[in-house]
Design brief:
The structure holds two protein chains of two kinds. By secondary structure, chain A is mostly helical. Helices cover 75% and strands 1% of the residues of chain A. In chain A, helix 4 runs antiparallel to helix 11. The longest helix of chain B has 16 residues. By secondary structure, chain B is of the alpha/beta class. The chains are: A mainly alpha, B alpha/beta. Chains A and B meet through helix 2, helix 9 and helix 10 of A and helix 10, helix 11 and strand 18 of B.
């Protein structure tokens, strides 16, 4: 880890500059959809500020960011799975929900131990799914749906179906820095930046992307395909657990929406973790606008579905036009 | 057993009846002539062999006479219907002409009966099972497959029987003309004999059979006449009785083709170098048996053979993709038993596959990420992929493998097939392998890139690699290989060296015409 945070060697300051520049140009060229979503997010933001009274308040922004954080953290993990070519981890919502229970029951041990235990449990859950999918080659959708069922059921068995009231103090998680930044949001930023960096810059991230681009070629090239996919699931499940520490909810579709709308390509290999995070912000913002604008929850889900379909079909059309050229 | 009323009697057992005739059929693709003025005639009750090298025009011709493709010029007459170029390619032709391809169109999860009537015009909205059973039974009986159970799942049958069902399907449609495209390529001798039995039965019933095969002994065992294609032209049509294997080989490759070799193959390989790979009695059922060969440092060795000969499978086994069951392999004198591609790579054995889109290149990934994918550790410092290092390594590799360095950041699918192949080769050779294995090193590659790839392979060999390749392009093998081992039916048959490597000698080795006909 220290290697990741250490400053790059002193000999290459101009290199760093070009790296920053190429980072942006690369992402635009490689991902027109991600760029579009960023622009759309700004448009929606401006629209909300101008047209919807009550949207542009500090309190609403705080709430918006907090709710986006959960989806965003999970989406960062989900993006790894999607980039690796394994579509979606449909057990993330279940993992988050049950992680909340784990967190609440272990909170009496102290905040930090509770977080560590919760994330560790999530890690094990991810490892098991990774072994079945990456190691044995089982279908990722089926395995993670089944895993969701197991995780939810096991959580209920363990908690006895009752609401858990932990006897610890999680209040520091609800703390707000400088009166505007909830801790959730800080965790969200930290997780996204860290995972984005790992996927973009580490050999592991490169291998995830190559495997997602073409698993057969990756195997023929001798890449450690199984190991890499398994680690991907471990990280994704750890993200889900981290979201559960902050607040439990089932939100698989929101996470998938974030990943897809952000421009991570469902067939693998393309898109970044940052794209997924932006997708989460976009989806969250649209939902928030509708609520503040006085629309029903039902309409909100309809609109989210429409956005995903529009984004996915736009990407398909774009890809087809590119192919024809 | 006689056929039911439903089957239309085949007109005229008289061998003089012409069932199909083409006049001046010409077809070109993008300005390149695939067929030039082909006149052809197919008679009732004959087995007519179609021969020619890859790319000679056989398959284009088959597509035109079976109605899958329209000719640019020329006319086609089937029975008493004449179609000029404008009217070909209709489904009309397909009812009279049935093609049995190498790639079977049998659905393994359906029964024999269902497969026989798959897409059959007699099957309307309702599936009249009893009527179809009767007709299916009759069709099987007619071609000597009476023992086959109509209710077996097609997938449970051996490959040969599935092939025979495909032929029976043609019979249920009363197709008068049956085209068999290398029906025996993947079959054993006993199975081949069954296919022959069915073909002879078809002939006796007055069908016309077009038989495409690269196996000369089958032609001599089965065919009445043989037509040879070369460079899109029909070269000859003769009764097989008037031919000899040597004569046929000569027709196929052209007598002037013992051509001056523009060989870059090393002629100074007389002095022995150290043996890099030594294979003894290697067996991998069912594809090859008891194969022994060696490759020295600096040497380019080719293995050649038809589809199903096992030559390409040998390459895969050596690469760790299909571990052999018996025999020994030594790499630089040390035991070499790769159980996976990863293990092979860890021993310095690198493999360039024949299907670059499927498993050779990361198509939507930048070219330099492709090139460094197998040497990633060389651009990683402190746990981070250094983009500066990666650019440098990428540039070096691009220069070495003659890839445009300015395009390193474009996705590989932006490149032409030839350049993609260079990326595939560069990616696998970046690790400086001890042994480089290649399957079809220039499939789908244009002529210019082809010669560059040949030069690269020679360069890699000169730098100390041993190169072993499989290719179905004999001209290519003649051009680049120092030594060639020919395969037939899973066995290494002959070994040719230096100036003895000619298209003629190779063709003789892989067709094995000396073998006694069945």
């Amino acid at each position: 880890m220290s290697a990741l945070t250490s400053t790059p060697t002193a000999e290459t300051p101009p290199g760093r500059l070009t790296a920053v520049r190429s980072f942006f140009t690369d992402s635009i060229r490689a991902n027109p959809q991600g760029t579009t979503v960023r622009a759309a997010a700004v448009v929606v933001l401006l629209l909300g500020i101008i047209a919807i009274p009550g949207f542009a308040t500090l309190n609403n922004f705080k709430g918006l960011l907090a709710s986006v954080s959960l989806i965003g953290i999970a989406a960062a993990g989900m993006a790894i799975i999607t980039i690796s070519g394994n579509f979606f981890m449909l057990s993330m919502g279940a993992t988050t929900a049950v992680s909340t229970i784990v967190f609440a029951t272990t909170l009496s041990l102290g905040l930090l131990p509770a977080i560590i235990i919760t994330v560790a449990v999530g890690t094990v859950v991810g490892l098991l799914q990774g072994l079945v999918i990456g190691g044995w080659g089982a279908n990722p959708i089926i395995v993670t749906i089944a895993a969701a069922s197991i995780i939810l059921g096991a959580g209920e068995l363990w908690s006895g179906g009752l609401t858990i009231f932990g006897d610890g103090d999680p209040s520091s998680l609800n703390a707000v820095l400088f009166d505007i930044l909830p801790v959730q949001v800080l965790v969200f930023f930290a997780v996204v930046i860290l995972i984005h960096f790992v996927i973009q810059k580490s050999p592991f991230g490169r291998q995830i992307r190559l495997i997602g681009s073409n698993r057969d070629t990756a195997e023929f090239a001798g890449l450690p395909v199984k190991r890499t996919v398994i680690i991907g699931y471990v990280i994704a499940a750890a993200c889900a657990a981290m979201a559960g520490v902050l607040l439990g909810a089932e939100f698989d579709f929101d996470v998938i929406s974030a990943v897809l709308v952000g421009g991570v390509v469902v067939t693998g290999g393309k898109g970044t973790v940052l794209d997924a995070a932006v997708g989460a912000v976009f989806i969250g913002m649209v939902g928030n606008l509708l609520i503040v604008g006085g629309q029903s929850f039902a309409l909100q889900t309809v609109i989210k579905g429409v956005i995903v379909i529009v984004a996915v079909s736009a990407a398909a059309l774009l890809a087809r036009r590119k192919g024809k050229r | 057993m006689t056929g039911p009323a439903a089957s239309v009697p085949i007109p005229g057992h008289d061998p003089a009846t012409v069932l199909l005739r083409t006049d001046g059929v010409t077809k070109s693709f993008g300005g390149v002539h695939a067929l030039k003025g082909v006149d052809f005639e197919l008679r009732s009750g004959e087995v007519h062999a179609l021969l020619g090298e890859n790319g000679a025009g056989k398959s284009t011709f088959v597509k035109i006479i079976s109605g899958q493709m329209r000719a640019d010029e020329g006319s086609l007459r089937i029975g008493d219907r004449t179609m000029d170029a404008a009217h070909q390619g209709s489904t009309q032709a397909t009812n009279d002409v049935a093609v049995v391809h190498q790639e079977l169109s049998i659905v393994p999860t359906m029964t024999v009966l269902d497969n026989l009537f798959l897409g059959h015009p007699a099957v309307g909205f309702l599936y009249r099972r009893r009527e179809l059973r009767r007709r299916g039974r009759a069709a099987l009986d007619r071609i000597g497959l009476g023992s086959l159970n109509l209710d077996s799942l097609a997938g449970s049958l051996p490959l040969a029987e599935r092939q025979l069902i495909e032929i029976a399907r043609a019979v249920t449609r009363d197709a008068r003309i049956v085209i068999l495209d290398e029906p025996t390529a993947t079959l054993s001798d006993a199975e081949i004999e069954r296919v022959f039995g069915v073909v002879r039965e078809l002939r006796a019933r007055g069908h016309a059979v077009v038989y495409i095969s690269h196996r000369l002994k089958e032609i001599f065992a089965l065919a009445d006449r043989a037509t040879v294609f070369r460079d899109g032209r029909r070269i000859s049509t003769e009764p097989v009785a008037d031919l000899t294997p040597d004569l046929l080989v000569e027709r196929i490759i052209g007598r002037n083709l013992v051509k001056e070799r523009s060989r870059i193959a090393n002629e100074d390989h007389a002095q022995p170098r150290s043996i890099r790979l030594d294979v003894k009695n290697l067996t991998c059922q069912p594809t090859f048996r008891d194969v022994s060969l060696s490759v020295a440092v600096g040497e380019i060795v080719g293995v050649v053979g038809q589809i199903g000969s096992g030559a390409d499978d040998l390459i895969r086994s050596l690469a760790g993709a299909r571990p052999p069951q018996a025999g020994s392999m030594l790499l630089d004198g040390e035991q070499y038993t790769p159980n996976s591609i990863r293990q092979a790579l860890s021993r310095g054995v690198s493999f360039v596959s024949d299907d670059r889109a499927k498993n050779g290149v990361f198509l939507d990934v930048p070219i330099n990420h492709n090139l460094t994918s197998m040497v990633l550790s060389s651009v990683v410092r402190g746990g981070i992929v250094r983009s500066g290092d990666e650019r440098r390594v990428g540039k070096t590799l691009a220069k070495r493998f003659t890839i445009d360095a300015r395009r390193l950041r474009s996705a590989a699918n932006q490149l032409s097939g030839g350049n993609q192949q260079k990326v595939s080769l560069g990616k696998s050779a970046a690790m400086n392998p001890r042994l480089l294995l290649l399957n079809e090193p220039t499939r789908g590659v244009d002529v210019g890139a082809r010669s560059e790839i040949y030069r690269l392979l020679r360069q890699l060999a000169d730098e100390g690699a041993a190169v072993l390749l499989f290719s179905s392009d004999l001209a290519e093998v003649v051009e680049i290989c120092d030594r060639v081992v020919t395969f037939f039916h899973g066995r290494a048959v002959t070994e040719l060296k230096g100036a003895d490597i000619t298209e003629q000698s190779l063709l003789q080795g892989i067709l094995n015409p000396e073998e006694v006909p069945l």
